[in-house]
Design brief:
- The structure holds two protein chains of two kinds.
- Chain A is mainly β.
- Chain A is built from no helices and eleven strands.
- In chain A, strands 2, 4, 5, 6, 9, 10 and 11 form a seven-stranded mixed β-sheet that branches. A four-stranded antiparallel β-sheet of chain A has the order 1-3-8-7, with no helix packed on it.
- In chain A, 37% of the residues are buried.
- Chain B is mainly beta.
- In chain B, strands 2, 5, 6, 10, 11 and 12 form a six-stranded mixed β-sheet that branches.
- The radius of gyration of chain B is 14 Å and the shape is globular.
- Classes of the chains: A mainly beta, B mainly beta.
Chain lengths: 113, 120
């Protein structure tokens, strides 16, 4: 247990569905991240939030919409996804600044059908 | 641009033996941090060890040690006395910049990973 909780753990959705992934941490961290892990590829950074403000969008398609209502919660809203969006989506958090490590959740394994 | 390279897609090691997982990196920054994470089949990324670019000594954490060779830009992970529970995917990652407020978002750049299987 790293203290970062992601729900759901598994999600199957159709291309016309709308769903949301949730990430929660009560570690007092002020930076939160979404990463995408596709098969046989390195983890790709999607979004970065520092102190609830989005500080990086790594050219992610608009069908992925992040939301950070407070420093403990991070959402990834999904709509009209494509089959190639099927992947493991990992959330991470850390204390911004310095050389602190990031703590990761267990991920949501998403399948788009 | 930053880059992390792990050239070993898969490795085998006998239980109780030591194994080295390779990692090379490329950066033009003078200040950076190097991390190793373990990812079991459950999916969670577990932090193992950290090495700062200005650290003169190699980092160690229990059975994990990092063989940091700055001139060669390599940061190999050494696992001693391998256990069956060490079977997992291992990722090397880099973060540029240690200075808070420098615009550094703290993002990690990951390598492709190495799958380690420990044989009984």
């Amino acid at each position: 247990e790293t203290g970062v909780t992601q729900t759901p753990r598994h999600l199957v959705m159709g291309m016309t569905n709308k769903k949301s992934l949730k990430c929660e941490q009560h570690l007092g961290h002020n930076a939160m991240y979404w990463y995408k892990q596709s098969a046989k590829k390195p983890l790709e950074l999607m979004f970065v939030y520092n102190f609830k403000e989005q500080t990086e969008n790594n050219s992610v398609p608009s069908r992925f919409s992040p939301e950070c209502p407070n420093s403990s919660h991070l959402f990834l809203h999904l709509h009209t996804l494509q089959p190639e969006d099927s992947a493991l989506y990992l959330c991470a958090s850390r204390i911004q600044g310095g050389n602190t490590e990031a703590f990761f959740g267990q991920g949501t394994r998403l399948t788009v059908v | 641009a930053q880059k992390i390279t792990q050239t070993q897609p898969g490795m085998f090691v006998q239980e109780k033996e030591a194994v080295t997982l390779d990692c090379t990196y490329d950066t033009s920054d003078q200040s950076y941090g190097l991390f190793w994470y373990k990812q079991p089949s459950s999916g969670e990324m577990i932090f193992l060890i950290y090495q700062g670019s200005y650290d003169e000594q190699n980092a160690t954490e229990g059975r994990y040690s990092l063989n940091f060779q700055k001139a060669r830009k390599s940061a190999n992970l050494v696992i001693s006395a391998s256990q069956l529970g060490d079977s997992a995917m291992y990722f090397c990652a880099m973060r540029e910049g240690h200075v808070q407020g420098s615009g550094n978002t703290g993002k990690l750049i990951f390598g492709q990973g190495t799958t380690l299987q420990v044989k009984p």
